[in-house]
User: What shape does this take?
Amino acid sequence: MRQTVRSAAGVALAACLALAVANCGGGSDGDESAETPGGPAAFGADGVPPASDEDPPTAQRFRVDMLRHGRDAPRHSSDGGGKAWLEDPVDAVASRPGTWTILYEAGPEGVAVGGIVRLTIPPFWHWSDPQDQMPTAPGYTTASCEAEGVALESFVPDRGVFQVRIAGRALREGERIRFVYGAGRGKARADQFVERESPFWIMVDGDGDGVVKAVPDTPTINVLPGPPAQIVLTAPSTAHPGDEVELHVAVLDRAGNRGVAFEGVVDFPGVPEGVVVPERVELTIEDGGVKTVAMRVAEAGVVRLLGRAMPADAPEDFEGMLGESNPLVVDERAPRILWGDLHGHSNLSDGTGTPEDYFAYARDVAALDVSVLTDHDHWGMLKIDANPEMWERLNAAVRDHHEPGRFVTLFGYEWTSWIHGHRHVLYFDEGGAVFSSLDASHESPLQLWDALREQGVPAMTFAHHSAGGPIATNWDIPPDPEFEPITEVMSVHGSSEARDSPALIYSPLPGNFVRDALDRGYRFGFVGSGDSHDGHPGLVHLASPHGGLAAILSEENTRDAVLEALRQRRCYATSGPRILLRTALDGHRMGSTIAAPSGDEPAFLYVHVTGTAPINAVQVIRSGAIAQTIDCEGAWQYSVGLDLPELSAGEYVYVRVVQADRGLAWSSPFFVE
Ligand SMILES: [Zn+2]
Ligand SMILES: [Zn+2]
Assistant: This one.
């Protein structure tokens, strides 16, 4: 159990905790927030309803109370006053040490004695925590002020936060505080992920009542990639003989960041018969390691293309960076698979990088067909539900990157309920609102679905990390069949599918898995999605043990077609790799509802898998349990037909695929009526 919790899960958990701390514990919040020395017990007089008897046992009502308190606490006019900027703003390099100096200058109202000026380092990902105890260790931070009579009492109230309290006399307009982050010999380690506009938050409590607010125009820096370290090749999963398809070539750094300084050549050793690609592709510095190449596939078969990236200045004995593409099945009848990542975050909430860079990575590097940025309604330093211009910016990025037929983007956000569990709201057209989970009138999923019904914009919701993780889904409220046809079984948090699933989610809640929800009679299609906070939608598994992708079976790539496919459960989930999975039950396609076979006739289940690695097993799950495990003996492609005897109304059947490299796929279930 313990082992399954490490790395990605640990990272995700750390992120959640970092923000929990940032938002709640120390009150290190954004412009909406407050700090209450008395903690949660001091709340209650602000109109927030007390914990309700109807809350599920998993509810984290204290968190809602604190977020509401932070949102509603009155701000003094001097809170958030003044300005901040970086002195000599040098770019950071991912995971490398550096020193950054942030200057704060008091505004017209100054900062009173007892007031606070706070520096918050971005909680994502792996910046050194600021500390004031060990000058030689990373993250050592100092604050100084030249104004005569002003004394600074510095302290570190929480991870990621360094602050000073003003003593002696008030800090007056124009007087400055100089923060040096990474002031010691150990400097400070930068984020491991590339990011434009990574913010150093400066927050000010001007009157000394404990309530802080961010200064306008928070200083930001850019985080640049490390050296080229890997090549990722992505082709579509299916094509017809004679087609010309796009092959995406991406030379990335160790953490999967784009934009590397790569100058050199990519070639394709051992091109299979019937495949035509350029002999060599030149990449210049301007390409940033990313290029799209035309590839023609003449004959039926499975193409796995090997690529080799060779820097121009490589030493003679360097053999190049090697990578193999996902399998491309060339077949006249192969149904088209759209690869989607329906869930991830940018720096509009608690993720890395801008919304624009998120979509550009999804399209150019991960070669996704469908991409959704679902920033949190009320989580992060500034909150989307309280800042309409942030929701507008997110929607503008969605609009700007939408190319029907080639790259579909959807509008959406994460309804971050700490009572009933997190759900994503996807909008398939313009005009959707943020119905915030923090808002008492949209606190339950029933209220959310009612609001969506009333609004009338084509919409969908789905639950994620439903079996545990930061918070489990309250399955006592039946998912609305109109709005919730799918559920996320896999993401960076791990698998919520079932207790017996590999890559199990951390903090699993017995009886709360997706399979348990099916046992209650709920009907879902399955998707995976990354929940990327690293700016790498579609490829979150590059830097984490697992991720998630949604395979959407649709010949057309438009918002309408994607909506239709998901509603019909024509989709399946993977842990990140582009495994091809086909299933049919008595000739019906994946996700179908079928009539119970008559008489003694068994139902016939057909399964066909094309792996991205050797396949260890195909497992058939039937109504609550693994009915059969088939040893695939490491085959890269595997087909099997099985009789399912005595299949009766009320049952469900789905398939799980386990690869030798721990890659996973789950078909959507069939439901028997
Ligand atoms: Zn979430
Ligand atoms: Zn999320």
About this structure: DSSP finds eight helices and 43 strands in the chain. The longest helix spans residues 7-25. The chain has four domains: 1-29+37-72+335-578, 31-36+76-222, 228-330, 579-673.
